[in-house]
Amino acid sequence: MLITDVQKQPAWELKMDSAQDQPFHIVTPLTKSIPLSSVAGTEVLLKLENIQPMGSFKIRGIGHYCQKLSKMGYTRFVCSSGGNAGLAAAYACNKLGLPATIVVPESTGQDIVQKLKNLGADVVMKGKVWDEADALAHHLAEAPGSVYVSPFNHPVIWEGHSTIIHELKASMGCQKPGALVVAVGGGGLLAGVAAGMVEVGWPDVPIIAMETLGAHCLNAAIQIGKAVTLPDITSIAKCLGAKTVCERALQCAKEHNLVSITVDDREAIQAVEKFLDDELMLVEPSCGAALSAVYSGHIQRLQQEGNLKMPHGPVVMIVCGGSAISLSQLQDFKSLLGMD
Ligand code: PLV
Q1: Which atom of ligand 1 is nearest to the CA of 187?
Q2: Angle formed at CA 133 by CA 130 and CA 135, multiple of 5 degrees
Q3: What is the DSSP letter of 330?
Q4: In CATH, what is the architecture of 59-154?
Q5: Residue 4 pLDDT level (bands cut at 50, 70, 90)
Q6: Ranges of CATH 3.40.50.1100 domains, the chain
Q7: Could you report the per-residue pLDDT of 111-145, keeping only the tens digit for each?
Q8: Residues framing ligand 1 (Cβ under 6 A)
Q9: H/E/C letters for each residue in 26-45?
Q10: Could you tell me the distance, in angstroms and rounded to a whole number, from the CA of residue 238 to the centre of ligand 1?
Q11: Does the 22-57+156-336 domain belong in CATH 3.30.479.10?
């Protein structure tokens, strides 16, 4: 290809020769947040996954998985998604030069659908919640050459997500986090970070697992000690909206020092708004759920109750990001929740 041809092509269409081998994710910054540290009364570090390609941590695991599947010879990828995993899969397939079908629930915003199409993906909308879209994705993936890509439930995806912790270890040197805060949907991020923490020698670092009520499949499962399927997803945090948490995430909750916390949608939205004011970054309600660990006072409460050692290392928040948000959507969520 001539240099001039390359220049004419949109950046997202550039296929690297090494697309099979180079990771699709970037190494993200770890920054100290002065405003969140001041709210928490302890040092808070932000792992900025919101600046990943397509706006969330998902590219780590999904990108890695798509690369492996393409090496195995699959020629079409079918991914079900609440939005962000689909964007990551579409981005990865675009880089690999392979077709992707992304199945999303009917509640998915037009802006996400358009972003998926811009990446060259076929988009199918099915069902009220992700679980229904997922059932169709399994069916579509039965076609010859096709393969199903879960948004969260595969060891290769967890391996990709575990790179977050390896980067953290490299950034923090001999310092150890006092706690790690993650949002939980289907549990892939949790499974990945938990694996990473064992690998870097931090198996004892508490994990604070945040969910919104109405998408609290991990919390519900922990309460009864086994996987449970929620009757419906009633939270606005649709990207946390898997009715059943993956088995591995539930196992992690048993093996690790894990605290499961639920917040309501209003707290998640308040956190999104405060984070925008404090850090000038706009994230999804799913990520707002994680940020509520600080903004709703849970870190402080856990410390006061003696459930989080004091003094301890910095609290590391995985800023998982998410693309299903805009200023007008934030306003819509506020109106819906009576927060105007
Ligand atoms: N979202 C998945 C699952 O949706 C998806 O298809 O995009 N934060 C953000 C911004 C997310 O998009 C997700 C997952 C999570 C957190 C939770 O990650 P998980 O599913 O690995 O626990 C139904």
Answers
A1: 22
A2: 110
A3: H
A4: 3-Layer(aba) Sandwich (3.40)
A5: very low
A6: 22-57+156-336, 59-154
A7: 999 999 999 999 999 999 999 999 999 999 999 99
A8: 56, 58, 81-86, 130, 151-152, 183-190, 239-242, 284, 286-287, 320-322
A9: CCCCEEECHHHHHHHCCCEE
A10: 8
A11: no
